[in-house]
Design brief:
By secondary structure, this protein is α/β, with parallel strands linked by helices. Helices cover about 30% and strands about 20% of the residues. The protein has 2 domains: about 110 residues, NAD(P)-binding Rossmann-like Domain (Rossmann fold, 3-Layer(aba) Sandwich); about 180 residues, 3-Layer(aba) Sandwich (Rossmann fold). The relative contact order is 0.13. The model has no long low-confidence stretch (mean pLDDT about 95).
Length: about 325
């Protein structure tokens, strides 16, 4: 079987198993600027640099493209309209990040409950001030996004004694991890009883800007928002206003509308806001796991077997089952 032409879109870092990939495909490397020229003639695109929107500018060069794989769980940067309308298959890296993000969310919630930021601020001032802190057990968390990452979060929080509910694209009952799943279109009502609102939903036209002034205004003044999904799920000016006016108690944000977060953003200095640089999923060995997942799919491609993590392009994520 002749080797398929494969373009690897990269930002300077490459898959650790590139030599093994090259045994199964005719590999061409491309940065975002080089993609239009390199995509011509390629049957497969590995979006190793998953943060760049370069595919939109290069799409007209995709004359033989049959499969795109992105080294991320989110597919918003590659799910451009002509891609949706095409017969090009799309796969993602679902399954690699579930446990890591769940641990990160638990850590953030413990940080808030135990006032870790307050302790650190007092330490920098050499202030000894005893305070009572909160328990996580018995608190409520609404997880918005009930895919594998949301489920991993629900299981870990449940083990810590948190009462977890879920919101997804459609309402349903009998879910093994959430019980009853509510429709995320009803967020304004759903957030009213939550101590923590955790965002892990994919970015789609329905979820973009889903956390706006009305949802933030419905949250309890003692509630905290945690976003480890996509920055565009939140209307940032509305969040800044809610935090400034203390309409919610705090936010932990790992993703933002613009990344890196601009130095002039007020989110850097608002009290009770924790900013991290899109790292909730990234644990030691994560790139190797991404590379091995793609290699497995490439072997499936050559054997004409079903691909793992095939994305339903009409909704923007892998459908369960």
């Amino acid at each position: 079987m002749p080797l398929s032409r494969l373009t690897v879109l990269h930002d300077g870092t490459l898959p650790s198993n590139l030599e093994r990939i090259e045994e199964l495909a005719d590999v061409r490397l491309a940065t975002a600027a080089e993609l239009p020229a390199t995509l011509a003639g390629a049957e497969i695109l590995l979006a190793w640099d998953f943060l760049t929107p370069a595919l939109a500018a290069a799409w007209d060069s995709a004359d033989r493209l049959r499969w795109v794989h992105t080294a991320s769980a989110g597919v918003d940067n590659v799910l451009i309209p002509p891609m949706v309308d095409s017969d090009v298959a799309l796969t993602n890296s679902r399954g690699v990040f579930d446990g890591a993000i769940a641990e990160y969310v638990l850590g953030l919630m413990l940080m808030f409950a135990k006032d870790t930021m307050g302790t650190w601020r007092r330490q920098t001032r050499r202030e000894w001030e005893h305070r009572d802190t909160e328990r996580l057990a018995g608190r409520t968390a609404l997880v918005v996004g009930v895919g594998p990452i949301g489920r991993a979060i629900a299981r870990l929080l449940g083990a810590a004694g948190v009462r977890v509910s879920g919101a997804g694209r459609t309402a349903r009952s009998g879910d093994p991890d959430f019980g009853d799943v509510a429709a995320s279109s009803d967020l304004t009502e759903l957030v009213t009883g939550a101590d923590y609102v955790v965002l892990v939903a994919p970015l789609t036209k329905e979820t973009r800007g889903m956390i706006d002034a009305s949802v933030l205004g419905a949250m309890k003044p003692s509630a905290r928002l945690i976003n480890v999904g996509r920055g565009e799920l939140v209307v940032e000016p509305d969040l800044v206003a809610a935090l400034r006016e203390r309409r919610i108690a705090g936010a932990a944000l790992d993703v933002f509308e613009t990344e890196p977060l601009p130095p002039e953003s007020p989110l850097w200095e608002l009290p009770e806001v924790f900013v991290s640089p899109h790292m909730s999923a990234d644990t030691v060995g994560w790139r190797d796991a991404l590379a091995e997942l793609f290699l497995d799919n490439l072997r499936r491609w050559r054997a004409d077997e079903p691909l793992r993590n095939l994305v339903d392009k009409t909704v923007g994520y892998v459908r369960d089952g």
